[in-house]
Amino acid sequence: MRRLLFGVLLIFFGTGAWAGGTIEFGENKSVTVGAGLRAAFTSVEDAAPSGSDDSSDFSVQSIRLYMNGQVSEKVKFTFNTECQGCVFGQDSDDPTGAGGDIDVLDAIVQFELSDAFNVWMGRMLTPADRIELNGPYYGLSWNQYTVPLLPSDQLGDAGLLGRDDGITVWGNLDKFQYAVGFFDGLNGGPNQDDNLLFAGRVAYNFLDMEKNPAYYTSSTYFGGGGDIFTVGLSYQSQSDGTGTLTEAGDFEAVIVDALFEKPLANGGALTLEGEFKMFDADLSLAARSDPSCFCLFDGDSYFVTAAYLFPGNGGPGRFQPYVRFTSNEPDFVGMDDSDLTEVGVNYVIDGHNLRINLNVTSGDANLTGAPGVDADGISLGVQIQI
Fold first, then answer.
1. Nearest to 378, CA basis, from 10, 15, 45, 2
2. Which of the listed residues 6, 144, 187, 223 has the most CB atoms within 10 Å of its CB?
3. Which residues, including other chains, have CB under 8 Å from residue 212's CB and lie 6 or more apart?
4. What pLDDT does residue 2 have?
């Protein structure tokens, strides 16, 4: 599978005429290909194997191959792959030495009937809050996943990387956007009745309409999206969506997110982002103590981010410093609150297609919602898309 995918990559990107572009097969028939890469150097205090020295790690955090196609005026498809945490070196599962697993990220049949009504079926992003719909490539901060995530981002038991198999109906009605769908959610375990997961999101653009494909989002437009003030409300629920085979519990989440971005007269831009999450995971103490538990976060969390894009170029790009604060407040008895502060700067060369990031973090918040190791870290990352 890996050789096949990289063979496709060489075919499409190995010739200048097709690189990162569209191949036409006739009227309303085409295929568009692209790719994305995120790599970083990270150092965390006292995280070396010795336990008393700082870690020093280079990593390819994400490799994606994109393919979108159109077979008629209103019927399209998407096929994307992801290799997250890819490593290059010998491992037990791959004697060739190219580590990491390539997964199907998206596989969608898209009936795009009008601005107001569209139907997608397959594997896709579940309608959710802004940071889930951003994906890693369209966030503002490098480490946006430090608040508890929804079931489809829980390492595969109920989806993977925010995706799940299901159906979504979405559309735009003037400045109002909606996306609702049903998905497999958690399979097996506590969900012996095979209940589906419901996921929905509505958003209203009070100023300019955000320019994104479908129901996807971004956390900054680097001043190029006009005056943005959008408020979104997301809801997900699944009966028996958390717990264990013998101790099943229901899950639901309500999330409010907001984005404000203002291009300034001097050519700069101010960006403010915030989100508040309310998770209800009906878990008993026995379930939480069971190693087999599909345990979701129960409690509240929030984050706020502020950024300023400087107006003048510094070389080929522009500097965008930012600060982000996260707080996770579980309702579990005996589980402490956690928080994390990230201070960073994006060096923006070509929007989300080419940027360099330097950030420092301090705290113990992470995507599980449970406190992690309270540590300071520094990261230098690069992101590229074609």
1. 45
2. 144
3. 218
4. 47
What are the backbone dihedrals phi and psi of residue 239, each rounded to the nearest 5 degrees, phi first? -70, 135
Mean pLDDT of all residues in the chain?
90
Give, in order, the Cα–Cα distances in Å from 160 to each of 83, 143, 187, 296: 12, 18, 13, 15
Whole-number Cα distances in Å, 265 to 207, 229, 270: 17, 18, 11
Quick one: which of 186, 185, 214, 211 has its CA closest to 201?
A: 214
47-66 residue pLDDT tens:
888 888 889 999 999 999 99
Encoded amino acid at 288, one letter: R
Q: What type of residue sits at position 52? A: S
Return the pLDDT at 131.
96
Alpha-helical regions (H) of 89-248: 130-134
Residue range 233-275, pLDDT digits in tens: 999 999 999 999 999 999 999 999 999 999 999 999 999 999 9
SS (H, E, C) 315-333: CCEEEEEEEEEEEEEECCC
**Residue for token digits 């969390």?**
301
- Closest by CA position to 271, among listed 246, 299, 244, 307: 307
Instruction: In whole angstroms, give the CA distance from residue 349 to residue 316.
Output: 6
**Cβ contact 251:278 at 8 Å:** no
Sequence-ordered list of residues with C-beta below 8 angstroms from that of 143, at least 6 positions apart, any chain: 324, 340, 342, 359, 361, 379
Q: DSSP state, 17? A: T
Measured in whole angstroms, how far is the alpha carbon of residue 48 from the centre of its chain? 28
What per-residue confidence (pLDDT) applies to 85?
Answer: 61
State yes or no: pLDDT of 7 exceeds 80: no
Lowest mean pLDDT among 99-108, 134-143, 182-191, 323-332: 99-108
Helix (H) / strand (E) containing 286: helix 285-288
Name every residue whose Cβ is closer than 8 Å to that of residue 252 and which is 6 or more positions away in sequence: 235, 236, 237, 238, 279, 280
List 309's β-bridge partners, or say none: 269
The pLDDT of residue 173: 95
Q: Taking a C-beta distance cutoff of 8 angstroms, is the pair 130, 219 a contact?
A: yes
Mean pLDDT lowest among 96-110, 154-168, 280-294: 96-110
